[in-house]
Specification:
The chain is α/β, with parallel strands linked by helices. Strand 9, helix 16 and strand 10 form a beta-alpha-beta unit.
Length: 428
């Protein structure tokens, strides 16, 4: 099949939504016989080897496989090191399994990977439907394609470490899709801009939520992908989440990590005894490893929006800031000299009402009465907090992030309770 720019963009619109950043990210489609397969550069160029496309890319599901494979590479890039073939193979195996299991309809259940790689040997971990019974790669492969939710979860880094033990020096004949972070023209490693990867990650997370996949044997892959994509959040997203309250307002989740001991067929942290057995050519069977575990607790962001003055002028930028959480923010508190809770959808529609006066006292009462330990206030800064409410907030000691719009550069009344930043600084 012939690959065109309009074809790529239509595929991305169908997969990620018509308004997604990714749908317009690919800016050029270039035939390039110098690269083995295909790649997407940090500037949005899709380069492909015509011979590879003629032989392997037959339908839209094959095209989905190659494009999504390349879009996921920046997400897993922090695990890949220059000229590290083991890490590249492990990350490709994870990415291919994620695409096959979490996007089965769009990818034809990994149709491209199924035809491109053999069903036995090391390359077999890069595709579904392989025959690896009694192979040294069986346990690793089962974790990618057959593991139930009762089995232990492994991070991408742990899977790389496991493959290092199983196959320290992979054969040179393994052909991998994409450029693995290297420039298509110079071969040098070029990291993608953080804002680009953050926007791509947001689109992929939204697409993952829309698929409804994740139940059963591929749930651990969904959790792994979500955790990896979350590392690509922009500073503005991280800043908001630092002010998540423990009160259940919406569906943000905070994470607490600790270590637990698990028995695993993978030698992630092998003991001296295990290393001696491996050195003697004896496979110990099960290893006792220390594995990081994540516990999640529900949190929310209490957002107070000043609607007393010039908010309408700045509303598009404010909604743009909050839109990263549009699927998780249920409501926003509007305030002038009273506080009113409204659905987030009403804010997006621009239906706002005000009593025209402004003070921060009404926020202080709401924060204290609802026992918020953290809050975010978007305001033009032209308001005050009286001594009584200042003392009450000091006693309650909440952490408050104040985001100023409309030009004012300071807010001394709220400064004692947390950071004061400019709207332009957290959306730019």
């Amino acid at each position: 099949m012939e690959i065109t720019l309009s074809q790529i963009r239509e595929l991305m619109r169908r997969s990620l939504g018509p308004d997604s950043f990714t749908a317009g990210f690919v800016s050029q489609v270039i035939r390039d016989p110098s690269i083995p397969t295909a790649c997407i550069t940090e500037s949005g160029e899709l380069r492909f080897n015509p011979s590879f496309v003629v032989e392997h890319v037959r339908t839209d599901v094959d095209l989905f496989c190659i494009v999504f494979h390349e879009l996921l590479h920046p997400a897993f890039g922090h695990f890949i090191h220059p000229d590290d073939d083991v890490a590249n193979i492990a990350c490709d195996a994870i990415i291919n399994a994620v695409i096959t299991n979490l996007f089965p309809e769009q990818s034809g259940r990994g149709s491209l990977f199924l035809r491109f790689y053999p069903e036995r040997g090391l390359e077999a971990i890069l595709r579904p439907g392989s025959h690896l019974r009694n192979s040294r790669y069986q346990s690793l492969y089962d974790h990618l394609y057959h593991t139930s939710t009762k089995h232990s979860r492994l991070s991408a880094g742990e899977m790389i470490q496991a493959l290092r033990v199983l196959c320290p020096k992979p054969p040179n004949s393994v052909c991998l899709l994409g450029s693995h972070g290297r420039s298509a023209t110079t071969g040098a490693n070029i990291p993608w801009p953080s804002d680009t990867t953050a926007k791509l990650a947001g689109d992929l997370l939204a697409a993952l939520a829309a698929t409804g996949q994740g139940a059963g044997h591929c749930q651990h892959l969904q959790q792994l992908l979500v955790e990896v994509l979350k590392t690509k959040k922009t500073l503005r997203q991280c800043l908001l989440e630092q002010y998540a309250t423990r009160r259940k307002l919406d569906s943000f989740f905070g994470e607490a990590r600790h270590t637990r001991r698990v028995t695993s067929p993978f030698p992630l942290n092998p003991s001296r005894r295990d290393l001696l057995l491996l050195g003697a050519g004896i496979w110990p069977g099960l290893f006792r490893n220390h594995q990081p575990d994540v516990k999640r607790e529900q949190k929310g962001v209490a957002i107070f929006l000043d609607v007393s003055g010039s908010v309408n002028e700045h509303l598009p930028r404010i909604i743009g800031l909050l839109s990263h959480y549009r699927d998780r923010i249920r409501s926003v508190y509007l305030f002038s000299n009273v506080v009113r809770e409204v659905p987030f959808k009403m804010l997006c529609a621009g239906r706002l009402s005000t009593t025209y006066g402004t003070d921060f006292n009404c926020i202080a009462r709401t924060v204290i009465n609802k026992e918020f330990d953290r809050a975010v206030i978007l305001t033009d800064g032209y308001a005050s907090l009286d001594d009584e409410h200042t003392h009450a907030l000091t006693e309650a000691h909440p952490h408050i992030l104040t985001i100023l719009f409309a030009g004012k550069t300071s807010c001394p009344d709220l400064l004692p309770f947390g950071e004061v930043v400019q709207l332009a600084d957290v959306i730019g």
